[in-house]
Amino acid sequence: MRLVSLRHVQPGMKLGRTVFTDDGKVLLGAGMQLSERLVSGLQRMGIDSIYIDDPHTSDIEVEDVIRPETRQDALEVIHKTVQQLRNTNKVARRVSVKDMGMHFQQVFHKILNDLSGAKDVMIHLANISSHSGAMYHHSVNVAVMATAVGMSLGYNTTQLRDLGIGALLHDIGKTALPKELLDKTDRWNEAEMEQAKEHTRLGFDIIRKQHDISLLSAHVAFQHHERMDGSGYPQQLQGDKFHEYAQIVAICDVYDSLTTPRPWRKRYMPQDALEYLLGSGGYLFQHHLVDAFRKHIAVFPLGSGVVLNNGESGVVCKVDPECCHRPTIRILRDGRGNDLLTPYEVNLKYNLKLFITQFEDETLFTFMESKHIAPEI
């Protein structure tokens, strides 16, 4: 399968991966033949790309690091919790939500079990979600990445639980923000940005009232926008006062935010987002945490269309975790853009004269003009 911009999807193409609704239900199942009506519906939802199967890439399996049913369960629990909190008044929000801690513990342990059984925890999947459902998918993505980082650091089960549940709930404070602010499709102005920053305090207040959720998890929500140099919020913490769990979630939050499309911009390329984080090591986040995160990210994910310096183009078909920046490419078109009758594969790890110059479908990405940007909340 390969990742394709919706604007390049033609009726009759076959869907390669299931597309989920905001609450974890199946919207379109893998293998479904796409019609013009279905593609238009996805575009109206704000989805910019999907995975498709075709004869030249049908053997390329782009696996999620967690099982589809685990992702569905996580989306459903987050969606139900968000709706429940949005439908309660400010006073009710200050008390415990029935069984919230139990539900998030159950979901987290499913994520942990899936990651524990994976051979190599490499994040390949592009973030495919509607604008309205971005928060739910983002929370699951951040939790998966943060847990993988915690595992690589040797965290025990209790530490992983506190980290993972904190990651699942890191943006829960947004449920207490005005809906019109969250639904705005333009960039926030300065006053709106200041209002949105309150989600860290609001999230802390919500989580610390819950039974069966550690106070450390609440501090993850409270601190995930802090930075080691004191430039973050809400407390401008510096150095080791910025808790390690919150740093891990902050790193994952930044990466997923940058590689997710917004109504006002396309997604940034994975290598740009990773370069931004690598450049932040030592002053925004601890070096060893950024390095631990880097080992789980495929800079050129499986199924991505890429162009080589000789003009040939194709799809990433294999990624070596030890050399993820030089994957194996299945060449589908020659330097003039003509389709090859017989595609072939080239392993960039052993062909050092060749390198990737860009993603083939530039309509999916925007370039990061500065490596010192402040990612959106």
TrEMBL record:
<dbReference type="InterPro" id="IPR003607">
    <property type="entry name" value="HD/PDEase_dom"/>
</dbReference>
<dbReference type="Pfam" id="PF13487">
    <property type="entry name" value="HD_5"/>
</dbReference>
<dbReference type="InterPro" id="IPR037522">
    <property type="entry name" value="HD_GYP_dom"/>
</dbReference>
<feature type="domain" description="HD">
    <location>
        <begin position="135"/>
        <end position="258"/>
    </location>
</feature>
<dbReference type="InterPro" id="IPR006674">
    <property type="entry name" value="HD_domain"/>
</dbReference>
<protein>
    <submittedName>
        <fullName>HD-GYP domain-containing protein</fullName>
    </submittedName>
</protein>
<dbReference type="InterPro" id="IPR006675">
    <property type="entry name" value="HDIG_dom"/>
</dbReference>
<feature type="domain" description="HD-GYP">
    <location>
        <begin position="111"/>
        <end position="309"/>
    </location>
</feature>
